[in-house]
Specification:
Length: about 240
């Protein structure tokens, strides 16, 4: 049975409290990018883990030239294993569609639900650089792309993100991912599309709508959904739990 697209109602009935969420930020970001969402989820009784990927955010002191996609997958796998997490809702934003897909290849038995939030769903042998053809694969660190007015619903949020964003280890973009398709066998799968920008994910939403076992959601904001619409996103994540 295919799933219709949903518009989240933050006041709708939610999942029982006590779900375990692992939230994985996108490129150039860090755990800070999930601050509004993680605080709301914890206030509603959920267990929330928000690892910062190596070379970014408060871990930007690490040498970027030795960090690749496998490092970032290890970051999340180890967060799950060392904290004895099970039955998790695994959420990947943007670039981290690659990361959470790789995590599913490694420890699918720990994952109850996977959510691709404005995120790439990679094919076998694909890298982020294969999709972001504008980037320079020869530099060890990829600079933060400049933001533009209108990227965020609130200009103050754009300034906050610009102040915190850090260059991304290029190896995380250029390493190709081996995908056996473990994510497809997870009990619950969802794709969340932001309709407030002209992004590359419309087909992924259509695929989710028409594929059994998937749910599809739309949310009216720009690409950085956790910053733009934390309340609406929390409602969606609870529905995915």
């Amino acid at each position: 049975m295919s799933h219709p697209s949903h518009h989240a109602d933050p006041h709708a009935a939610s999942a029982p409290t006590g779900a375990t969420f692992v939230l994985v930020h996108g490129a150039w970001a860090g755990a800070w990018a999930w601050a509004g969402v993680s605080a709301r989820l914890r206030a509603r009784g959920h267990r929330v883990h928000v690892p910062t990927l190596s070379g970014l955010g408060e871990r930007s002191h690490l040498p970027g030239h030795v960090i690749d996609l496998d490092t970032h997958i290890d970051d999340v796998v180890n967060e799950i294993l060392w904290n004895d997490l099970d039955g998790i809702v695994l959420v990947g934003h943007s670039y981290s569609g690659f990361v959470v897909t790789g995590v599913a290849e490694r420890i699918a038995s720990r994952i109850a639900s996977i959510v691709y939030l404005e995120a790439f769903i990679p094919e076998d042998g694909q890298s982020f650089a294969d999709l972001a053809t504008w980037m320079d694969p020869s530099v060890p660190m990829t600079p933060v792309p400049p933001s533009s007015p209108g990227d965020y619903l609130r200009e103050s949020d754009r300034a906050w993100v610009d102040a915190k964003a850090t260059p991304q280890p290029t190896g995380s973009f250029t390493q190709k991912l081996r995908v056996g398709g473990a994510y497809r066998d997870l009990p619950k799968k969802a794709f969340v599309l932001a309709t407030g920008w002209d992004g590359p994910f419309a087909q992924a939403l259509q695929n989710a709508r028409s594929t059994p076992g998937w749910s599809a959601y739309e949310i009216d904001c720009g690409h950085d959904v956790p910053v733009d619409r934390p309340d609406e996103l929390v409602a969606i994540l609870e529905a995915c739990a």
